[in-house]
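Could you help me review a protein record that somebody else here produced? What it holds is a sequence and that sequence's fold in token form. I need someone to confirm that the token line plausibly describes how this chain folds. Take the sequence as given and treat only the tokens as open to question. This is what I was given:
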Amino acid sequence: MRQIPVYLFTGFLEAGKTKFIQETLEDARFNQGERTLLLLCEEGVEEYEPDSFSGKNVFIEPIENEEDLQAPALDALLKKHQAERVLVEYNGMWMLDSLYQRMPEEWVVAQEFLFCDANTFINYNANMRQLVYDKLKSCELVVFNRCGPGIDRMELHKIVRAASRRADIAYEAPDGQVTYDEIQDPLPFDLDAPVVEIKDEDYALFYSDLSEDFSKYDGKTLRYKGMVVKSPRLAGDSFVFGRQLMTCCVNDIQFTGLVCRWPDAARLNKGQWLTITAHVDVKWHKGYGKKGPVLTVMDLETAAPPAQPVATFY
């Protein structure tokens, strides 16, 4: 099946998406004549200048409503223009799942960029955290434009890192000069310690870091607090151990846990809080249906719930 690369540009109004896409399509290094479908999911202040594109190969189609993001309609637009790739200027007020879940099967996101006005980003994050997190969680590059000398880059950095430790961060000054974020983010626990101690307040970061790269934890011994969850899919010597985690708001609280093995697991009660010491092996397990971290419990003890039972990044 032929794959169609999709280049996704997200951000809120006046964040700089249109300007960047215009410049990208003017660049002959990117635009070498490939038939390109450009989907406009919002009407911004700036307008495109197709005559300036490198070639007459770009076909612009507006998507007026989030409900119009349907695989048959998108596929029809691709075939209408016989396009070889797709660029999407996405509406910042729409959730990304609307696009990801409805794209034609052969459409594959090649790159995802987020553009932000450094002067308004903090307010957006405070008032529309769910929408901001939605755009941060999967992007590869975050560009903060209009980033003058009065902007607290550390505050911007922390918000990005609370959602993703993988995204690159760029700061564009009003004069157009771009610098890249080089702030180091050491983990708040020592992965080289004989026993890696995870504090209650660091669970969210621990789980996020582990989820991004299982291999870092393979063979480690961990000690941390969590809750017991029983699953009929697991054998009698196994249970799930973890905590409720809130990534951006109360609407997205979900339980995050790891498969644990302990001979007396049947004695444990659902919802029971424990502190465990366990050895990690990354391997296939039916509880995941794929490879994942399986914890072999070496020691456990009853514990009181954390002061903040729902783990957060703040």
